[in-house]
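Re: beginner question about structure tokens

> Can someone show what the tokenized structure looks like for a real chain? I only ever see the sequence side.

Sure, here's an example I had lying around. Input first:
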Amino acid sequence: MSRSSVRSICFECHSRCGVFVDVEDGRLVGVRGDPDHPHSHGYTCPKGRAAYELIYHPERITKPLVKGQGGFRETSWDEALGLIAENLLKARETFGAESVVFGTGTTRGLAPYLNRFLALFGSPNFMAPSNMSGGPIVLGSAATCGFGLVDPDYAQSACILLWAHNPEMSWAGLYMHDISEGLKKGAKLIVVDPRGTRLARKADCWLRIRPGTDVALLLCFINVIIRKDLYDHEFVETWTNGFDRLKEHVSPFTPERCAEICWLDAKQIEEAATLFGSTRPASIGGGMGGVCQANDAFDLTRSLTILSAITGNLEAKGGNLNCQPPTRKRSCYGPDFSAYDNLPKEQASKKLGLDRFPLQAHIPIPCPPQVVWPAIETGRPYPVKAVGLFANNSVCAYPNSQRVRKVLASLDFLFCVDYFHTPTTELARVILPPAHWTERDDIEDLLMKNHVFAQVKALEPVPECRDEKQILIDLAAKVGLDGYWRTVPEALDYRLEPCRMTFEELKARGHYATPLTYHGYEKFGKFRTPTGRVELCADYLTMLGISALPNFKEPDEGPVASPSLMEEFPLILTTGGRNIVYYHSSHRNIPSLKRRSPDPELQIHPDTARALGIDDHEWVYLSSPRGRVEIRALYDADMHPKVVHSPHGYWYGVDDGWKRLNINMLTADEPLCPVTGSVPIKALVCRVEKRGS
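And the corresponding structure tokens:
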């Protein structure tokens, strides 16, 4: 009997917890937390511990599949890759390289390898859900202060503000240790969330905001802090631009006015804003989904940045840090890989969405899916004919599922790379089986603060699964791309060159970190903005048709914007709160995880449910102007009586589950945030009815 234990990091979600992978006779037998990991400190979630069930699941796709008249059949890698290469080349020859789009989900760290392939192939179109997960934070904060507001220094904070963010369920391994450390040291906690999460219930101030009114509340926070003279005078005078105009702009947003807009108590708003403004240092954690899925996501995220700036918490110890990955320009979304940055200007300018979202030419993020669909549907601004989806169940992951399915079904060619069959893979011509994270080497730096980690191969892949990097290397050879990496070690070593080490050296160390820096703007004498200061009033944006100051916009569905619609759909629906046992629509077929959360549950106030004759845990119909799904009612006295919350990602185990259980049958994919392309799925109108009525 041969036993080994390999130190690695878990890839089941973005937290990337440190783990030991236990192997016996070449098979995985367990995953344990690594107590010496600098972020997770020994924590592992149910997903990571369930890796055995995923790897050896009887439904796992283990051979390439090609669709014929009778359905999918197993084939060789040579035939499968040859068919993909043939269709990619055909699309490029007939319609141009831009007619090919590669897309990925939110995990597996594939962006560098996919972008490099696309750049060499000639397409600027890398599609990812960044517009609804992180992209608006990067755009809003970078446009304001020159860096992304994604690294709160919770452990050193005296005040922690969680805005539409429940890290206990979404980022437990990355953030919860530091949050706990901060709270143990006496940090105050402010939570802005429509739901009564565990952190909300233990907070010093919990603001149960009406979904979609975040910008109004933020402008009110800024107004209170300025009016009470709680802002950092020295920082504002030395390092910001446009303070007087900001002061005038926010003055109408009084606690009394915002109480009406946000369904809150004016005194509670004043107390929370005063607590944040008077406590130093203070950090802000914005939810990757919570603040990135709104029709005004850009103004929301730059308002968060302005709040951090005027209180002197940007790049401050205990505030919001400016962490640079040690891999620098070769980080996950670094410019050395970006297809947009590495194509001739004429070809790069064809990137889908640039005409609609011009700021993305200056702060590039991937193409929003919602700009790819029209190119497939209408051929405008040019046709998209071939799509490759890596670890992405688009039908369930993106809003307006009915449209997404119809669009993908109309493609000339679709191939998918995924562990299991999904409502998306069934539309593909070719399906390729990827290796699991325990079966491949990789590095991880995305949102890892100032660290880069080695993810170490612990066992051989289940035959005939392949590392996605190897799949792209093999496909590049079939297509005839010059300049793509020839081996996986070559690709990993290339990414690590800025760290002056090879992957073998990183494996020996486990991780590598550069020193944290504070107040970097003092060293360089400026922020990376047009004026060199924090743009409280960003006049340069007006050249792109964007307001210089953040503005509150009512949700497009709700009591103000569509009162007549609420006569038919009288409740506000917010969606997408994370569940620790799942990662978006994945893991739904893993037995130990499904037992923990078998059914979607609608959080609804007991009084609201009883008025409708609905019992706790009863199956009901949930409807919006776009459709209807089935869901269990879950009494939750912490919900506002006019607001309900539905999770996302449920589809598995039910016939036509993508139609019957999937909340994205109800969500909208228009109107998008005019700057970031963010989707408005946090504030919709809905109706709840007894099933069968």
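Each token stands for a local structural state, so reading them left to right follows the chain. The chain has 26 helices and 27 strands.
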